[in-house]
Write a structure and sequence with these properties.
Blueprint lengths: L2 H9 L1 H11 L2 H4 L5 E3 L2 E2 H19 L3 H10 L10 H5 L4 H16 L4 H9 L12 H31 L6
Antiparallel strand pairs: 1-2
Length: 170
Amino acid sequence: MEPSVVSEITEDEEYMECVRDILCHPVFQSMDQYIQHGTTTCKTHCMQVSYLGYKLCKQLGGNWRSAARAGLLHDLFLYDWHTHAKETGQYFHGFTHPKAALVNADRYFRLTGEERMIILRHMWPLTLVPPTSKAGYAVTCADKYCSTVEATARFKHWIRMCLFAQPARR
């Protein structure tokens, strides 16, 4: 994550007040070992989704506290999804990881009903049941935006390298 983004997040006292316990927890910190999209770790992805969801939710007039907390926990599935199916035979990560994340989040943190629903439904429209609150829609939209940016960053870099790389000299 860019230092300016980290600085913006950590300097937002209102945001930090409601998520500090999650950010400091060893289980949340362990998400740094898993790559989410491109070269972005699961921890960084969740921090970006959380903060963007929080900001969107404030604009929409929803429960920004739930958006911030659920955004941090929405992908707390705690495995490398790139190799998970091959190792376990459990396919369809996109459909199943919200439940795994919710089970883990419930195990380590105290969640409200709204936070549970946000985590469980954040993959809509891939999963059929939509979010039930403004906070849920804020996190769902933030997740789609962040995922797209993360996944396309490596592709953009590759294209630039192909287009602008100097040919080898003989």
